[in-house]
Amino acid sequence: MFIAVFGANRAQAQQLQLLTVPHPESSSYPAVEYKGRIGPPRIKGEARMFRSGIIRTAEDPPNFAGHYRITTWGCGAGCVMGTLVNVITGHVMFLPATISDWPSGSSPLEFRKNSRLLVINGVRNENEVETSGLRHFYEISGKKFLYIGSAKREEKIPVVR
Predict the structure, then answer these.
(1) 147 is a domain residue
(2) Containing domain of residue 62, as a range?
(3) How far apart are the first and last CA of the chain?
(4) 125 contacts: CB under 8 Å, gap ≥ 6
């Protein structure tokens, strides 16, 4: 019960917007890879409840959008949640949703260190209306995720981190 409430508070209510154009590509959202010093995460507010998960990867290099590090952990049977840490400033924010019911043989998240595009595979925030065959596209912009839209999963796309 806690997870459903937490997840619902984490992402703003978004109507499902099915894309009619081709799926967004990572190359359309370029990011410059950061190679400098990695600062410690600034863990505040609700993020303190997940301190150990965030600290576990505190010294790892960026793995998303040039200067961010995505860290995930389980939030129940078949559920994943996580944070995004800016390795330059230490700013910590939560991913736009918890993820469950992702398709077999795929990853719940797709992201690259040289792209600002984040793809969520499966159901966001245990929303019973959504199906596991959907992919949800987000762009990281400053300190927030911008929802681009959703599309039916057509093929398995390899995850490169």
Answers:
(1) yes
(2) 2-152
(3) 32
(4) 4, 7, 8, 10, 11, 97, 98
Strands (E) located in 2-160: 68-74, 79-86, 92-94, 99-100, 109-110, 117-121, 123-124, 134-141, 144-152
For residue 28, give the 3-state DSSP assignment: helix
Neighbouring C-alpha atoms within 13 Å toward the C-beta of 52: 2
Residue keyed to tokens 């290099």: 61
* Nearest partner of 65 among 136, 124, 143, judged by Cα: 143
Domain annotation covers residue 159: no
Sequence length of the chain is 161
User: Residue 109: beta bridge partners?
Assistant: 120
- Using CA atoms, how far residue 67 sits from 16, 23, 33, 93, 114, in Å, is 29, 24, 6, 14, 9
122 lies in a domain?
A: yes
Residue 130: both structure tokens together: 């959504």
pLDDT band, very low/low/confident/very high, at 157 (cuts 50, 70, 90): very low
pLDDT at residue 3 tops 70: no
Tell whether 119 is covered by a domain: yes
- Tell me the per-residue pLDDT of 69-123, one tens digit each, with 9 for 90 and over: 999 999 888 899 999 999 999 999 999 999 998 888 889 999 999 999 999 999 9
Give the count of domains, the chain.
1
Three-state SS at 61: coil
